[in-house]
Design brief:
Chain lengths: 121, 121
């Protein structure tokens, strides 16, 4: 394996904290982040950007104000900018996020779930 | 499953052509594309953008002028902008590409492998 090859399972094995995205790659000014989630996150939105969720292991639900979208491993979803959403996972779920560098996990909401940004694995 | 949920295996089942990327999602001005590849592609580079390869099924090699990087399902790689590369896959390999809208598969090289751009699944 090359030094620059990113193995998703190897990266996932390197951290255990929930709701704490870790950057694994940059493409131009976008970042690919891994996160482990469990429980109910806070309602929030990102005013300036869409946000991509790719489910790697497990199951989660993306709650919106008008619908609830179940997602399982091998599925992805684009949350449009400005749309309030809340990730929920009864059991641990591993996801990849794609979004511009600088996006904060709690968006416009802030609070105790706000993770340090730009933390690389 | 929501109308907006993207199931990668379901999308992959919808086409069979090699070297013919299909757009499955947009995030801001970036596109997520699926491709099935087999054989040797042309050497090319993208002057203005990095390009992300995520391997979904099978194995491929990213050849560079100074190294050869084997990649398998569950691995990803960021090809830096301007760097010549050539994807090679002895057997069919299914990949996801992430890059700005408008990027042509053969980059600066053109030729018979150039696929129609912006084809959605």
């Amino acid at each position: 394996m090359s030094d620059n090859t990113i193995n998703l399972q190897e990266k996932l094995a390197k951290f255990s904290e929930h709701w704490s995205p870790r950057v694994i790659a940059e493409m131009n000014d976008y970042q690919f982040k891994l996160a482990k989630i469990q429980g109910e996150f806070v309602w929030h939105s990102h005013a300036d950007t869409d946000e991509v969720f790719i489910i790697l292991d497990g199951e989660m639900t993306l709650e919106f104000r008008d619908k609830s979208v179940p997602l399982a491993a091998g599925e992805m979803y684009v949350v449009p900018k400005g749309v309030e959403h809340r990730p929920v996972a009864p059991r641990e779920c591993c996801i990849m996020l794609v979004e511009p560098r600088g996006v904060v996990n709690t968006g416009n909401t802030g609070g105790s779930y706000t993770a340090q940004n730009d933390v690389w694995l």
